[in-house]
Structure formats: C-alpha cells, structure tokens
Design a protein that fits this description.
Number of strands: 43
Mean pLDDT: 82
Distance between the termini: 77 Å
Largest sheet: 7 strands, mixed
Shape: globular
Number of helices: 29
Helix content: 25-40%
Oligomer: single chain
Strand content: 15-25%
Low-confidence stretches: 651-697, 703-756, 904-908
Length: about 900
C-alpha cells in the first residue's frame, strides 16, 4: 500500500481547510463535512481558529483512498503564521498548493512556491473556487505558468494533451513520448519528484468537485520515499496536550520507533514514553511506528523543531524569520523575571518568538511576524498562564556576524567543575546559520565531549556583542578542549562553549571585525507608469536597489523589482497607496540579511555593553586555592590550561577542511593567535607576578582537594583582590539578585515569593549563610554545630511565617564514606550532601528538578552559583538580602499581631508576648 505525508499550503482564504474537509469527506474519513464559516471544520480544533476563521496551528489527519494511506498536514495560510507552516515542509513527501480561482497567484503564493523550491518538495496544485463567477481556466493556467512555473500541466485535459504537455517539460520525457507515444507512470513520478513537472487540477472543494480526481492523481503519480533500516527521525513541532504533557511531533525517516527506546547520547539521552498518532483532536496510542509515519511522542524534554534524531543528519534552518521585535508590557508591579520563566516554554512551540531577557532593564522582548500573531499570543498567555500582556512599539530584528576569523577560549572551573574549549570562528556563507566542524583529535578530547560541544553550539541562539542580536553565518571549528576524568559534567561544557563563542565575538569586536546584519526585503512593485520616477527616487532614498522597470504592453502600468532594507521599507505600502491613488501594489518577501546600512547608528542607539552581560559573559571562570574567580575576556588566554597557538598554515588547513575561505583571503597577520599568548599561565593575584606553565590534571586535583574552610576564606580574599583590580564599578554582592527581599512595593509579609500560583521552594546554601551573617559568623571557629543549629531554627521560623518548602543544604563532601542525608526538622528539610558532592552541585540539580513545578529561589552570595541557577529559571537572593527578608517577615508578623490585638482592645503587654513568640 502506498503511504504518503501530504502538506496543504495556500494563501489565506484560498480554501485550503475546505479542501482538507473535502478530502476527508470524499475518502470516508468523516461523515459530515465541516465548514470554516460554520466553525465546525474537522481540523480547526482551537477556539481561536474557529473564532477568527483561519488556521493558526498545523494539524494532522489520516485518510485512506483506495490502495493509498495518507497523513494530511493542514498548515496555516495567514502570513503571520508562516513559520508554523514552514516547519512542516521538512517532513512532507508531497505538497498540494491551493490557488484561489477568483484571485489567482497572490503575493504569499509566490513566497510558498519559493519555500517549496528551497526544500525540494514535489508539488501538485489545486485551483479551488472554480464554482465562482468570472473564473477562467485558460487565464488561470497562463497565470500559473508566468507566476510560478512554465512546467505547470493541466491534468484535466484530454490524456493525449496531458502527456504532450508533460513531455515538453523534460528532454528525457520528450524522447520517451516520441518513441512510445505515451509515458510510463514511473517516468512521470520521477519528473514530479525532481520538480520538473507540476500537475494542476481544478475544482470546488466546497462542493466536492474535483477532489476525487485529485486523490486519484496523487495515488497514481505521487513519488514514494525510500527509507533506511536504521532508526532516524525529524522533529518538526513541539506542543502540549490538554493536560500540559509535552509532545514531540516528528516523522520517522528510517527504521522503527518503539516505546521505551532511548534517544540521544550521554547527558542528552532520554527515553520515549508513549507513541500517539493523531487525527484531528483524537489520537491512537500505538506499539510501534515505522518509517514514513508522522506521530507525537511523550517523554522527551529537550527536543526542538528541526532537530535530527538517530541517523538523520543536519538541523533544519528556517528560511522565514520574523523581522520585528516587540517589548512585552505588563501591569504595574508584575515580576517580569518570574513571567519570563513562566512563558519561556512557549519558545519551544513557537521557535520564531526568540524570547530574550534584558537583564539590565528587566525587560522581555519577542520576535513576531505581525499584528495577528501578537493578538494570538496575548490570548495564549492569558489562557495558559493567566498573564495580561501588551506589545510595545515594534523594532527591527537585527543579526550579527564577523568579518574575519577570530579565536575564542572558554574555561569553566568553579570548585568541582571543569571544562575548557578553544574555538576558531570564521565567516560563513550568507544564510548558512552556524556550522560546526571539529579539528580536535579524540586523543586530546574524547568524542563524547566533542559531540556535546557540537550540541551546545547548535542548541542555542548565541547573542552577539554589538547589539546582543543573534549570531549567524559563522563556521565554528573546535581546535582543542579539555575535560577532567572526575569533575567534568555535561553542564560544564555548555558554560565553556558559550564562553568560548562569546570570547571569540568579543575579540572580533575589539579588532573592528564585528558586523551588524539587517533584514532585507525582495520587493515587487506594480504601479502606473507615470509614477515610476517618484518610486525609483524613493527606493534610492530608502537605501534600496531596483532593476530597470518593465512596462505592460499598453504602457499604462509598470513593474519594479529590487531589494531594500526592512527598516526603511516596511511601511512604504501606505505611501505608495497614497501617491498612486490606491492603484499601486507592493509585495515583499524576506530576501535574507545583509550588512546594515547604518551600523554605527543602530549600535549607538541600542547602547549594549557585552562586558556587562552576566547572563552571557565574555570572560571565563578559573579556580585557585579552592575557589572560582572571574577572568575578563582580554586576560583569559593568559590563564588558559591548554596551549592556544595556531599558525596561518594550520588555520588554512582547518578552514579547507570546513569548507571556508582560504587563508590568503582572510589572514593578514600570518598567525591567527597573534594576540593569544602561547601556552597557559597561572597568575598569582596576591603578588602580581606570574609563572608560565601548563597545568596538569594532578594539579587540578590538588586544587579540587583544598580543605573546606580554606576554600571559603580564599574565595573571599581572591574575589576581593580580583574585584578591586578589575570591577570596582560593580557590586558583586548583589549581582544577579532578584531583589526579592528589597522590593519597595513589597507590603505583604510573604513578599514577592508569594506572588505566583506555583508553590514556593527556597534552597539555602547553609555554610554561605553562616559565613556571611553577623549573628552566626563568630560561631564558626568555636561552635560550628551551634551555628548550623541556629541557622536551621531561623529558617524553620521563616518557613512558619511565609510557608512553602525550605531546603537548607550543607556541604559534607569531604567526609569519607558519607552517604548524605535528608531530614525534616521544624517544618523544613535539612540536607547534608554525600561524599564528593558539594552544596553547589546539590542546589544546581535540585533547581533543575523543581523549576518546572515550583517557583524556586536560591539564597546564596556565590556569583557563579547565582548565574547557574538563574540559567535554570530560579530567582536569587544574596545572604544579606535573605537576612533582611527574614527580619522583615518577623516585623510584619509582629505588627499584624499588635494591630489585631489593639483592635480587640487588648491591654496585655503585647511587645513582650511577641518577642517571646519570635
């Protein structure tokens, strides 16, 4: 039996969903044919879709026609949801492009055609609404041939004429037809697969006219995919079901997928739970899925749209991207950082959103395609998170790249963590995104770690250093790296990789080689010939370029085609309509990104300082005397543990390996690492002197084995020295703080910690509090047990006031044979970590586990720990802020108690009673 995955695409209101209804009804899949205007279409299942009468989310249905099984994917037609449509193109075997018989080829139709060409999708066409008056089949065919392809063939003609027209599309078909006076079905299918022939049917989906002929034509001529035996799959969508369970929508492109199958490797390995094959809102749980099946699976938490699984290769880079960015606006007093953590999962379902957190201004920015999408997002956030949101004025979505090769080093070494990554970053081809290649031998860095570095390069949107816009069009080459056999975890290489990339970008910026890219439209402008001069003058003023105009046969109308920056051209349609009296029409599609015409102006306006970006630092973290400390970007090379010299000849060989430009084109100094000092060095900050040497694993072990008390004391001393030397302008004791305790609007004794529907969880770094609080610090040397007991009592008292879950964590990693313990004392949990596990590690892992179901706050003054837990979505409080928060809670409880008894006329000595209670 023939199995196909078919995608339905169209300009909005061409009747695409009506065609889906007709196909399902004609095949006997549904008994009653729904209608969009009646709000009962089988595939428009979302209330927003029914209210608006448009498809917003791609949907799946299954039908059987004679000896053919079809998985039908109905995609959005509105231009604002083009990204949702594009995601399906990587998994369909065949596209049916629906054309409105009353409108013909429209602007978005051309965009869809270019996308289908880009993805190499075989395409059938169905001209719909032929029941409407003034529809002319011959005129429409002529328009299809001019507007789309001359190889569009009317399949409703006589068979002899059809074969003649098909044979005219390819020389091999001509020869076959001349010899046999006919064409083999396989020959036609092969030509369709190669996009040399585009069959066209005409009809009316509303009246089920022509849909049976379309199904017959698909069954006879649609090419069939061939699949391998090894498991592979392509993810195209992430959603959540009505119970909030995460669904990964994918197509199996090889082998068989089974429940409980492990997908991924190392730390990224996850087990598949349930296999669901959807048809409309209903699904069938199946025991296996073979190649060619489209389904949704549960159990995977890290998948993303466009991802390749198993033996499938390559990541799908979308062609259509939003060009407008908006700041989200909320009601006064909203905790925007909390909102960011709540809505961040939306980015999985709408990857084009590109949610960005502005730490400096505490703002959330999103990228969208247009006004209708903003309205839908407002409704989604209201329904799912009960958040009222507005959208500020739109701004252009810029990107960044580099103009010459650069070298970056990332090192991440807080206590009991270790990873170093060194990368060569070079310019890539326009539109190539980010490519990765390794030039590092497995004897230097194990293959598993190298795969992990590649994953971290691929998985994230990496911000640039000019405006914090997304980096693109670069080729990343792994030169070398280092792991520790005992202390390296997967997250360590994520930090080292991110820092290496940022370090490389910062090096490029310092050398004047950072490049800002702006989106560019490819436009087609149709207007009266008398206005051509005005239009061409405007295009030049708007920094665009136009080809010579083409006049119509009568000379009355002309067409201008060209390119122009989105920033100057996105509102030109209104001006064109005004001066042509409504006779001018403008069609724009995104051509891509080009160097910005006013880079200096945009960079100055954005006012971004990469060295102040603590969420994506340009520097690295090293360890000395048992404590981690920050090193700025321009000094990382002198602390690096691996040698980082690379000659021009070596670089040329690497670039040749990765397919980039030759060394002669991009290297002028003869040594790519001329500004990166050879070898690695340990700088003794106490004396200002330094000793050059390579660091051995034994020396790293020695650092990790430092005694607990020395680690705490040296960390304070080291950070003070480093802060005084480099960052006097920053108050690191408050860096990254959530200001939970210091909010001036906080008049509730529970503070911001109670401002959410999620249950609260507070994780406390026990020894960090003891060494920081004035009440406990004097007890460190004489009575540590007493200090721990007092901290537990204080936290228990605090939990009794504000509620929620409180977990106090103490290091016990140096206690030989210690298995760790968790006990409940006074309403809170007290954790002693096991041997070889630090409090930092426990808190990081607990934050990851609880962040999905709790509003997590971590109390610690450790900057590195703050950055890590912030990345997991937790709020942060320093030791001093937590102490102040406890004091405020006590005072608020006391005042509430006094107010209550005063209102009752109680004359007892309440101050004394409250003091005894507290």
């Amino acid at each position: 039996m023939k199995k196909l995955v078919i995608g339905l695409l169209a300009h909005v209101d061409a009747g695409k969903t009506t065609l889906a209804e007709s196909l399902l009804y004609t095949s006997g899949t549904i008994r009653n044919q729904g209608r969009v205007d009646h709000k009962d279409a089988y595939l428009d299942t979302d209330s927003m879709e029914r209210d608006r009468g448009i498809t917003i989310f791609s949907k799946q249905a299954r039908l059987q026609w004679k000896d053919m099984e079809v998985t039908l994917l109905d995609t959005p037609g509105h231009v604002d949801f083009s990204s949702e449509m594009e995601r399906t193109l990587s998994v369909i075997d065949l596209a049916v492009l629906v054309i409105s018989g009353s409108e013909g080829v429209q602007g978005h139709t051309r965009t869809l055609w270019k996308l289908l060409e880009h993805y190499g999708v075989p395409t059938f066409l169905f001209v719909n609404k032929m029941d409407q008056p003034d529809t002319d089949k011959k005129k429409l065919m002529a328009q299809l041939k001019v507007g789309l392809s001359n190889n569009c063939v009317d399949m409703t003609d006589d068979a002899e004429i059809v074969f003649e027209n098909i044979s005219a599309c390819d020389e091999a078909l001509i020869e076959e037809y001349l010899e046999a006076e006919s064409l083999e079905t396989d020959s036609v299918s092969d030509a369709i697969a190669d996009r040399k022939v585009f069959p066209v049917w005409f009809g009316s989906a509303l009246h089920n006219d022509g849909t049976d002929s379309l199904l017959d034509g698909i069954m006879e001529y649609a090419p069939v995919q061939e699949y391998g035996e090894e498991f592979s799959a392509r993810v195209f969508k992430i959603t959540r079901d009505e119970h909030g369970k995460r669904l990964t929508h994918l197509k199996v492109t090889g082998g068989v997928l089974l429940p409980k199958m492990v997908i991924g490797e190392g730390d990224a390995a996850e087990k598949v739970d349930q296999l669901r094959i959807y048809s409309g809102v209903k699904y069938e749980a199946v025991a296996s899925a073979s190649a060619g099946e489209v389904l949704a699976i549960t159990g995977l938490s890290t998948t993303y749209a466009g991802q390749a699984l198993g033996a499938e290769e390559g990541k799908v880079i979308p062609v259509l991207e939003p060009v407008l960015s908006y700041k989200l606006e909320f009601v006064r007093g909203t905790d925007t950082q909390l909102v960011y953590g709540k809505i961040k999962p939306l980015e999985e379902e709408f990857p084009e959103l590109r949610l960005l957190w502005n730490e400096q201004h505490k703002e959330i920015h999103v990228s969208v395609n247009g006004e209708v999408q903003t309205e839908v997002l407002k409704q989604v956030m209201k329904d799912r998170f009960d958040i009222e949101v507005g959208f500020g004025a739109g701004s252009i979505v810029y990107k960044e790249t580099i103009g010459a090769p650069t070298y970056g080093i990332g090192h991440f070494e807080p206590l009991r963590h270790y990873a170093e990554v060194q990368l060569l970053v070079e310019p890539g081809e326009p539109g190539s995104g980010i490519e990765f290649v390794s030039a590092c031998g497995v004897d230097t860095l194990d293959k598993n770690w190298q795969r992990l570095i590649k994953t971290h390069v691929d998985e994230a949107v990496h911000p640039g250093v000019l405006t914090r816009s997304e980096m693109t069009d670069i080729r990343v080459v792994l030169i070398t790296g280092r792991a520790h056999p005992k202390h390296t975890e997967g997250g360590d290489f994520r930090q080292a990789t991110y820092r290496a990339l940022r370090n490389a970008f910062r090096q490029a910026m310092n050398a004047g080689k950072a490049v800002l890219l702006e989106p560019v439209y490819k436009f087609t402008m149709e207007l009266p010939t008398i206005y051509i001069g005005r239009a061409m003058t405007d295009i030049e003023k708007l920094y665009g370029k136009a080809q010579p105009p083409e006049m119509s046969a009568d000379g009355e109308m002309s067409v201008l085609q060209g390119i122009a920056p989105v920033s100057t051209f996105w509102e030109y349609q209104k001006e064109l309509q005004a001066y042509t009296g409504g006779r001018g029409h403008l069609s724009c599609i995104l051509q891509g990104y080009m160097p910005c015409h006013n880079q200096d102006e945009v960079v100055e306006k954005r006012n971004y300082y990469p060295d102040d970006d603590f969420a994506r630092p340009t520097g690295s973290v090293f360890c000395a005397h048992g404590a981690g400390f920050q090193v700025p970007w321009d000094e990382v090379a002198s602390y690096a543990h691996m040698p980082c010299t690379i000659s021009a000849d070596q670089a040329a060989g690497i670039i040749g390996l990765s397919g980039g430009m030759g060394a002669s084109a991009v290297y002028e100094d003869g040594d790519i690492a001329s500004n990166v000092r050879a070898g690695s060095r340990i700088k003794e900050s106490q004396t200002g002197s330094h000793e050059e040497k390579f660091i051995s694993l034994e020396e790293i072990d020695a650092i990790f084995s430092s005694q607990h008390r020395n680690r705490k004391a040296d960390a304070v001393a080291n950070r003070r020295i480093y802060k005084k030397k480099h960052f006097d302008k920053y108050d690191y004791s408050r860096t990254g703080s959530s200001s939970v305790a210091a909010d001036s609007d906080n008049k509730n004794v529970k503070g911001k910690l109670a401002g959410t529907a999620l249950p609260k969880c507070l994780l406390v770094d026990g020894y960090n509090m003891i060494h920081s609080w004035a009440e406990l610090k004097p007890m460190v040397d004489s009575n540590m047990d007493g200090a721990r007991g007092r901290l537990i009592d204080i936290c228990s008292e605090y939990q009794g006031i504000v509620g929620g879950e409180v977990i106090v964590v103490f290091d016990a990693y140096l206690v030989s044979g210690n298995m760790g313990s968790v006990t409940k004392q006074g309403g809170i949990y007290v954790v002693y970590t096991k041997e070889a596990e630090t409090a930092d590690q426990y808190i990081e892992q607990a934050t990851k586990r609880k962040a999905k179901d709790y509003r997590v706050t971590v109390a610690t003054s450790d900057l590195i720990e703050q950055l890590i837990v912030w990345g997991e979505g937790a709020l942060r409080m320093s030791a001093s802020e937590f102490e102040a928060e406890i004091d405020r809670a006590r005072k608020a409880l006391r005042n509430d108690y006094l107010d209550k008894h005063n209102r009752l006329g109680n004359v007892l000595p309440l101050d004394k009673i409250c003091n005894e209670l507290l």
